[in-house]
Structure prediction request, 456 residues.
Amino acid sequence: MLTRLLTCALVLALAGCDPSPASRALQERQFVPLTEAPPADELQAVEPAPANATADAEAPAPDAAPENPPAPPQVSDTATADTDSIAADEPEPGTITVLNREIPPGTSTRLTWSPSEVFEGISTTTPVLVVNGRQPGPTLCLTAAIHGDELNGIEMVRRVLHELSPEKLRGVVIGVPIVNLQGFRRGSRYLPDRRDLNRYFPGNPDGSSAARIAYSLFNEIIRQCDLLVDLHTGSFYRTNLPQLRADLRYRQVRELTQGFGGMVVLHSEGAPGTLRRAATDAGIPAVTLEAGEPLRLQSSKVSEGVDGIFSLLASTSMIRRVQLLGQPEPVFYESTWIRADHGGVLFGLVRLGQLVEPGDVLGTITDPITNEQNLLYATARGRVLGMAVNQVVMPGFAAFRIGIETDGPPTNSVLAVAEWGQTDINSNFAPPDDSGAGQESEESDGAAALDPEETS
Ligand SMILES: [Zn+2]
Prediction:
């Protein structure tokens, strides 16, 4: 905790977690202020902060809510000078194209992505936030709410994207705060047809609704990314210690996890169809960042995730930040689930992150009719990485996930994916360097791998 406070204090003095990006932007006059309110009123209700922090006067606004009429656009001195020096028909060097929009360097832009038509035949658009740094560098993508009920990641994307200064950023950060807008509106993990979008990547343009949405996201946005962080929470009334899920057989992915500072890392290949796995298979180093539980906005969990993302930005030199000596190293885990053997009312007796020993009581399950009580015990020494919130459970319910510390990431890789050679983030990233037997983990064993509670 002390280290975190020190880090944040130093970062405050520089650029990382300035709590008032709006005022900073106004002082520095580096932005064209946003001319429209963020699209999701829910986000503003949670923390009505820097709606004016970033902007681009030329950003399209096809989905601007009528009740939030755009303010007159203002153009900053910096932007005007840059524009004047460039011929009208030639994009400024460093200009990138995202979703068919040209985004000059040193600007922040809000775009819209139209993944599909809803059943009524009306196109729905989802906001995409892009910060194109003044200096060239890698493209980091942040995706959230692929499961529409997972809210913490939405807030993480907002905090990160609105705190970044495009003048100081090296590279590009693309944030998709609410991938599954239809699920988000209904407070549901799923798409309206009950499909789990995170089982359909990289998608299919001729497939199901889910496959088409997945295809659109993957091809229009994800393929532009050099690094991907997909934000999730626990599912179905479970909560997760902030942690990374990553296919550690890839050296590039291992290095990506090390950019997050001391965050817990759990090795898993990822279930087929997950965005993380599809991106990794396509040569884009990707991790899932899990934090907290669905249907809630948890400030401390959000802050931990945001800290990790800013640490990653610093470690990839996309932002400048003083790295404290003794920056914490990630801790690698494999894990095992403790499941309920009886139905009844579950009460947890441990906390997330708590160290437990074999035989420790993790929780009680009490039959509400007979009053018979059964205890759940830890079967291994480790930390509680995930756990169910108090609820009524059935036999077989995965209640506690115990992380067992390992010496380090697995060093034997099994895959040799040709596409890895296409990725050139920086000199540290290279194709998998070795081969060997696959790493078995709890997540990869048979039916459990398809169990949503064990994947993301
Ligand atoms: Zn999820």
Notes: The first helix runs from residue 2 to 13. The mean pLDDT is 77. The radius of gyration is 22 Å. The CA atoms of residues 20 and 50 lie 7 Å apart.
